[in-house]
Structures are given as C-alpha cells and as structure tokens.
Amino acid sequence: MEPTTAATTAASGGISSSGFMLAIMVFFIVMIMLSSRSQKKRDAEHAKQVSTLQKGDKVVLVGGIIGTVVGFNQEILEVKVSENTKLSVLPSGIVSVLKGNTLQQGDKK
User: Fold this and answer.
1) pLDDT over 50 at 26, yes or no
2) Angle at 94 between CA 68 and CA 36, to 5 degrees
3) 105 three-state secondary structure
C-alpha cells in the first residue's frame, strides 16, 4: 500500500490540515465580530437609558436592589431605597429602568 500524504489527500477531495485550521480561524473571527457588535449595541442602549433618567424614575441596581432616583450629583446618582436610606450610585450600577411595574428593554428576563 502507498502511504497517504497531504498531497494525495488533497487531490482525492479531502481537506488539508492547514485548510481546516484556516476555516476554524475564520469561523472564530466572525463569531468574535458578531459578539462585539451586539455588545456595543447593548452598551449604547444602556447609556441612552441612564442619560434619560429623571427624578422619580424607579431603577434596578446591580445587586437587584430597586429604588427611586432622587437626585443627580455630577456623575453620581442618588437612589432612595427605603424611607431613610439613600445610596450614591455610579451610572454603571444601574441595570435597568422600571416604568410602571414592568422592566424596560435591555433587562434580564
């Protein structure tokens, strides 16, 4: 029997190992690009939600705490979580905005 080489495998219609590796690399590059694109879209939507916050809006914080926005101080939000408790929160600490009793887009379902 004749030993199988990359040349005979490629000639017989098989894929060489370098071609296989190239296909895998292209697949991963496409997946990374799609993932980064969707992440940018979510980040832009979150920034829009936070920039339109007003006093009285209900928000969900990172720890799952629900509170009401009572003030803004430069880049820090003041969130009232109970009668005598206010938290100072960075905008990145806002997970979602509650309108009525429903969560807005971008929220975890």
Assistant:
1) yes
2) 155
3) coil
CATH for 54-103 (1.20.120, 2.30.30, 2.40.50, 2.60.40): 2.30.30
Q: What is the pLDDT of residues 46-83, one digit of tens each?
A: 888 888 888 888 999 998 899 999 998 878 999 999 99
Which of 40, 49, 19 has the alpha carbon at shortest distance from 58?
A: 49
CA distances in angstroms from 56 to 37, 38, 101, listed in the order given: 33, 30, 14
Tell me the two tokens of residue 83: 């009668």
The answer to pTM > 0.85 is: no
Quick one: which of 95, 93, 63 has its CA closest to 76? Answer: 93
What type of residue is 59? V
CA-based torsion, 78, 80, 84, 86: positive or negative: negative
Domain ranges within the chain, ordered by starting residue = 6-48, 54-103
